[in-house]
Amino acid sequence: MARSSSGPVVAGLTAAALAVVGFLAFQASAAPDNPAKAGAAHSSPSGHPKDKGKGDGKGGPDGKDKASTAIPASSGSGLRVVYALKAKRVWLVGENEQATRTFEVAPSSVSPEPGTYQVPPRGRSPQLLGSDGVQVEHVVQFHIGEGGIVFGFSAALDGSTPDPNATKKTGAVREQRADGAAMWKFATTGTKVVVVP
Fold this sequence. Notes:
Layout: H1 7-30, H2 35-41, H3 66-69, E1 80-84, E2 89-93, E3 99-104, E4 106-107, E5 115-118, E6 124-129, E7 135-144, E8 150-156, E9 171-174, H4 177-186, E10 192-196
Parallel strand pairs: 1-10, 8-9
Antiparallel strand pairs: 1-2, 2-3, 4-9, 5-10, 6-7, 7-8
């Protein structure tokens, strides 16, 4: 019975091919634009990728382009909180016109009208029961609308988000807990809150 000398060669080529395929799969999974990786590393209240950490407002570690996280041009000037309704995004903007943090939020069933508001005296609460019955922390209110609807930023202790389709009219703007803590430090009494479309 004759023995083939090609056996070790074929086995060596197969092993090399598998190594190359494995390496390429690893590179694809580590790519910054991989949606599965971005969603796991930077989840938001709405379930979309976000810039979780501090940034300059011109893009973040999640690979978003500069335009998607740039401070809205029509948001005024000076130290302020900027809330973009359509983008469901907030920027904490310092006196130097640089965003110290930007993140996505989850709004409730009612949104405030675009305009400039201010955190009022007694508009901050470390913890309370939200208008939707959920225990929340780091509450920063900025407006009371028609019908007594209170608009404010908060983070649910259980991590839940409000139902935007709820029949009950509520004005909570929910953040993740780390973002809520940053908002609490930043938006003291008298801080301007600019709501843009």
